[in-house]
Structure formats: structure tokens, C-alpha cells
Prior knowledge:
- The chain is mainly beta.
- The protein contains no helices and seven strands.
- The protein has a seven-stranded antiparallel beta sheet with strand order 1-7-6-5-4-3-2, with no helix packed on it.
- A hairpin with a 5-residue loop joins β2 and β3.
Amino acid sequence: MVTGPGETTRPAALQPLNAPQPVQVKTGPDGAPLSVQVAARQPAGKSGQARPRTAPAAWVGVAAIDDMWKVLDEWWRGSEHEMRRTYYALLMEDGRRLTVFHDGMSGRWMRQAG
């Protein structure tokens, strides 16, 4: 973090970047994603025209799984710190690219922002 002259860095002012967000995922028998519920794409508005702040969610199919990897980490620190995640880099049918992961500890799906 770069500070101005004479400014003090305050940890409370730091914000996490790329924080994962909960997402709904439909999976196949092997547990791999088949479709993901994402905000619908908004058409580009004319200059000066207000666009809606939130778009309704829609299910979008997975066209391809570009990559898959697992993260098993911090098991030595105890179960409250253990991490078991399976990540998927997805190409969606509408052309978007998403990274999602399944949290093996909680059973939840998360979208890695980016």
C-alpha cells in the first residue's frame, strides 16, 4: 500500500480484493458444474441512460470446463482452519468466463470474483 507523505497506514482501511461470493450451481453425476445461476447480461445503454443496478439471475449452461484443480491446505492447523476446495475455470454458453469452487468443508459453491 502506498501512502502519502506523513500519512499512516491503517489496517482497518484495507479491503479484501477478489472475495468469493455465494453462487448456485447445478452439477452432473460426477460433481462437475453443468450450469451456474448468474446475473443476466444487460444490453449496453445509450449514453446518459440509467442502467438497472441489479439484473435478474438466470441459469447459464457450461459450454466447457477449461481447467479444474484442488486445494487442500492448512490441515495441520485443525479442522476450523482446514481448506478443501475444488476449483473450476468455466467457459459459459453465453461466452463469459467464470471461476467457481466447491467448498468441501461447508458444501457450498462460491464464485471467485475477478
